[in-house]
Design goal:
By secondary structure, this protein is α/β, with parallel strands linked by helices. The chain has a single domain (about 1-210), classed as Rossmann fold, CATH 3.40.50. Helices cover about 55% and strands about 10% of the residues. It is built from ten helices and five strands. It has a five-stranded parallel beta sheet with strand order 2-3-1-4-5, sandwiched between helices. The radius of gyration is 16 Å and the shape is globular. It starts with a strand and ends with a helix. The model has no long low-confidence stretch (mean pLDDT about 95). Bound molecules: cytidine-5'-monophosphate.
Length: about 210
C-alpha cells in the first residue's frame, strides 16, 4: 500500500508519515530532503539558486543513501530548497527515484508537496496535512529554539511566520507541481490537534482507503 502525504511546511506531515510507516512496517521517504540536498549543494558550491541547469545536474546525481537529515533540516536550506524546487528540470530529475521508492513491494510512505498529485497519483491512501500559518510558525520556532538555531532567526517568531508565508506562497504559486490538495485526498487540519489525535485521524483515513 502506498500512503501519499502532502502539506505545507511544519504542518505535522513528517511526524504523521513516520508514525504511519512505523505502524504499517513500511519504508518512509521524506521527499523534502531531496530538494533540501539540491539547495544545500548549490549554496555550498556558491552557485546561484536560479541556475536551473546546474540545480538539475545536482539533482541527477543525488543518492538516497547519501542524505544527512540533520544537516539538511535548517531554515536557510529549507528556503533554498523551495527556490530550486520550482525549476521543472529539478523536479523531473527527481521523479524516477521517488517513483522507484514508492513502487517497492509491500508499499511505502512518502511525504512532500506533490506525492498524491504527481509522484504517486495511484496511491490508494492520500492525506493532505495542514494547519494555520500561525500555528506552524509556533511549531517551527519551538523546534529552532530546541536546536539552538535562533541566531538564524533574529526576528523571532514574527520572522519565522514571514518565512513560512513566503514558502507557502512559493510552493503553492509555482507552475511546476504546485502544492495543492489532490481530488481524492483526506484533509487533516492539525491546528488544534495533539500528535496522538492527529495520528488517530490519519490512521482512520488510511484504514478507510486501504485496498
Ligand atoms: O518539506 P520540507 O520543508 O523539507 O521541503 C522543503 C522544500 O522542498 C519545500 O518548501 C518545497 O519547495 C520543496 N518540496 C517540493 N516537493 C516535495 C517536497 C518538498 O517541492 N515533494
Amino acid at each position: 500500500m502506498i500512503i501519499a502525504i502532502d502539506g505545507p511546511a511544519a504542518s505535522g506531515k513528517g511526524t504523521l508519515a513516520r508514525r504511519l510507516a512505523g505502524h504499517y512496517g513500511l519504508p518512509h521517504l521524506d521527499t523534502g530532503l531531496l530538494y533540501r540536498a539540491v539547495g544545500r549543494a548549490m549554496l555550498d558550491r556558491g552557485l546561484p539558486l536560479d541556475d536551473a541547469a546546474a540545480a538539475a545536474g545536482v539533482a541527477a546525481q543525488l543518492d538516497l543513501d547519501g542524505l544527512d537529515p540533520e544537516a539538511l533540516r535548517t531554515g536557510p536550506v529549507g528556503a533554498a530548497a523551495s527556490v530550486v524546487a520550482a525549476h521543472p528540470a529539478v523536479r523531473q530529475a527527481l521523479i524516477a527515484l521517488q517513483r522507484a521508492f514508492a513502487a517497492q513491494p509491500g508499499g511505502a510512505v512518502l511525504d512532500g508537496r506533490d506525492i498524491g498529485t504527481v509522484i504517486a497519483p495511484e496511491a490508494p491512501a492520500k492525506l493532505f496535512v495542514t494547519a494555520s500559518a500561525e500555528e506552524r510558525a509556533r511549531r517551527r520556532f519551538r523546534e529552532l529554539v530546541g536546536r539552538g538555531e535562533l541566531a538564524d532567526t533574529p526576528e523571532g517568531l514574527a520572522g519565522v511566520l514571514a518565512d513560512i508565508r513566503q514558502r507557502d506562497a512559493r510552493d503553492s504559486g509555482r507552475a511546476a507541481a504546485p502544492l495543492k490538495v489532490a481530488d481524492d485526498a483526506v484533509t487533516i487540519d492539525t491546528t488544534a490537534l495533539g500528535i496522538e489525535e492527529a495520528f488517530a485521524a490519519a490512521l482512520t483515513a488510511v484504514e478507510a482507503h486501504r485496498p
